[in-house]
Amino acid sequence: MALQVPTQRYSYVASPKVTQATAHAEPLPDGCAVDTVDIARVVRLVEAMPGELDKLFSAQELSDAGEGAGRIASLAARFAAKEACLKLFPRETALNTITAMDFSVVRDAYGAPQVVVSEAAEIVMGRHLVGEIKLSLTHTPLSATAVALRVPKVIEPSRGGRFLYRWLPYRREVILENLTRVYAEQVSRQQIILLAQAHYSHLLSLLKELLQFRFLSVQQKKDIVRVEGAPLLMAAYAAGKGALILTGHFGNFEVSTVAGVEHFPEIKGHIHFLRRPIKPKWLSDLLTNRFKKAGFGVVGRRGSLEEIVETLERGDAIVFPFDQYARRPEGIEVEFFGYAAGTYKSMALIALATGAPVLPAASWREPDGTHVLRFLPPLTPIVDDDVGSEIKRNTRAFNQALELAIVRHPEQWWWMHRRWKNQSAVKQLS
Q: 78: which residues sit within 8 A by CB, 6+ positions away?
């Protein structure tokens, strides 16, 4: 039976609007929600389900509430905060995409309440271009009230990005169609255009970096990339089953990987990129040669299953770019940002057959021009009695990992891909 907490609810959510903030200005909140909880009713709830509070609160929230006289008021304020956060995203709340357990309240070093969100909630916030949620909590002897404010993510394209969008709009229609598919139900037309312009800014930076990169020394290459989560990759090596690195075209993926490996020369020759030839051929050859020179192996995507399995059996890692469209029979229709998209099923097949862990990885450019290459913990394999369902559910989990990486730095994903090829077009923006 679903748990219900009777509440008195009063809320107001403002319509999204464009934030023209710069990097030096604090963006103003673009939405507000309020929730009030009757403390007496929370008392009855706690008495009725003393061993089931973990269905409503995180372990940290229960610990922070303590066992003293203020426990009930503290829990009531936290539940009001969860409800207020949900009201900021009414559509996703109604669809049960997010629930109260996707938000938790912690205190910072100064005692101010902070929101910690789940990955599902972070994806929802990202699709609304919300950078953070600010909280204010209060209570009286009778009730607890929470106010939640949405703070938008700052989108500020460079002059070069605006120029390219207007005068050199290579694949602009594809970029806008993809952005519209992902964001149009959540944000305004102008925000999508700003995001497209910011993407062109990223492409301009990417081209400049590729041209400069070849002239950098080994130490300079190391200095421009910070690697996070490397122990997770090393632990996968130690397990002896190899590793599948789930990634996509994030940030300057060429620079971050080639420079990132310089931090760990001992793994050179043990990481292999799965890639198919791209056009023009000279560019494909250039990138392949660059990877080999940096110490990476290259495995062809087609007809390479035996080579992939042998590589994993040696304990090596395969980098699998997973964000491109896959047609049948290699691909299956799996949800990606709420729409069916042809997605490679081979990664799930290989992971389930070999037991190799799947580690998500992403890269992005920081505001100071340096890069971050981050490895995340292995995804938990999903087990299902039906093989087809098992493959599809795991493939969906892989797509969700990509969604999370994309919304964290949306302008730095490769929106030029026709990721939803053969799906009906969405309304275009001029």
A: 57, 61, 65, 104, 105, 137
Q: Name the DSSP class of 5.
A: -
* CATH of 217-412 among 3.40.50.720, 2.102.10.10, 3.40.1130.10, 3.90.650.10: 3.40.1130.10
The torsion angle over the Cα atoms of residues 63, 67, 70 and 71, rounded to 10 degrees, is 60
The domain over range 31-152 is classified in CATH as 3.40.50.620: no
Taking every pair of C-alpha atoms in the chain, what is the biggest distance, in angstroms? Answer: 73
Distance between CA 314 and CA 264 in Å, rounded? 19
Query: Do strands 317-321 and 271-275 pair parallel, antiparallel, or not at all (unpaired)?
Result: parallel
Domain boundaries, the chain: 31-152, 159-208, 217-412
The amino acid sitting at 173 is E
Q: Which residue shows structure tokens 């390479």?
A: 304
How far is the C-alpha of 414 from the C-alpha of 421, rounded, in Å?
15
**pLDDT digits 0-9 by tens, 296-343:** 888 876 657 888 888 899 999 999 999 999 988 889 999 999 999 999
State CA 31 to chain mean position distance: 22
| pTM: predicted TM-score of the whole model, two decimal places | 0.88
Domains 31-152 and 217-412 share a fold: no
User: In whole angstroms, what is the distance from residue 430 CA to residue 34 CA?
Assistant: 37
Nearest to 36 by CA among 136, 158, 149, 133: 136
Burial of 215 (0-12, 13-18, 19+ CB in 10 A): exposed
Picking from 337, 294, 342, 341, the residue whose alpha carbon sits closest to that of residue 319 is: 294
Per-residue pLDDT at 19: 41
Q: What single-letter DSSP state applies at residue 245?
A: E
Residue with tokens 């605006």: 162
- Quote the CA–CA distance of 28 and 153 in Å, as a whole number: 10
Give the strand pairing for 271-275 and 225-228: unpaired
CB of 274 closer than 8 Å to CB of 321? yes
Ranking 62-71, 78-87, 160-169, 262-271 by mean pLDDT, the lowest is 262-271
Rounded Cα gap, residues 261 and 88, in angstroms: 42
